[in-house]
Amino acid sequence: MKKKHWSTILIEYILITIGCALMGLAIVMFLAPHTIAPGGVTGLAIVIKKITGISISVTNLVINIPLFIAGVIILGKAFGAKTGYATLALSFFIEVIAKTSHGYIPTNDMLLSTIYGGLIAGVGIGLVFKSGGTTGGTDLAGAILNKYFPNISTPKLMMCIDLCIVALAGFVNRNVETSLYSIIALYILVKMADFIIEGMGYSKAFFVISSKPDEISGEIMQNLGRGVTSLNGKGMYTKKDKNVLLVVVDRTQEVKLKDIVKDVDENAFIMVANVHEVLGEGFKPIRT
Predict the structure, then answer these.
(1) Which is nearest to 114 in space by CA: 195, 18, 35, 193?
(2) Which residue did the predictor score with more confidence, 242 or 134?
(3) Which of 109, 142, 145, 286 has the fewest CB within 10 Å, making it most exposed?
């Protein structure tokens, strides 16, 4: 595998650092003051702080370091230096922000804290994931447990752990609403992280079945400048071989492509699918 340039690695670590700083801000300023625990080790640390008063940063390290060591032993070095760095950086920023904020919180409203805490934490963890790191936590714990319970997938194990932490938050706060707000924060966090990782550059994949594949392909390549791939297909009702055209375009070209197909063959069959990311010629370059 081709090695990354040092500048690429530096940028990745800078993004991980920014991501951890944002996560620390979300935890200290929005989530922890209301015992909103959106899963993960940091969520468990928030619950433990509520019970014992132990700093979130300390609990995060105490739980994550053994998890990281176990992960390296059981799963190999796949989680690597970036996970170790992100774990330390997150605890560092939680501690620094907690010390420098002097107990200041932007709002006492639970719903606002849930929404903005989830958004900011989601951006932060999205940057960490996008840069090839993790903050340890339930994704690492889920992967370890999957080794011993292979019949249960890692995402399901992660979900079970997160739901237990969410339920625990409501229990220690003696308020079921805390668990409900924690679920909202977890949902927002996941969606925001997905948005950061996948970006907003949604493209459209078109599958076109027509009796005039050559004419449609020619119009698409000439008028849209997009490549077209012909896939071999067979109509199971007619038992006849057919060409299925596959073409990916950006959203601005969607209507134009439909018009092209309609003008050439108004009886064509079109299926359109959202594509989160397209790499290669005509789109974003493939980066490693």
Answers:
(1) 35
(2) 242
(3) 286
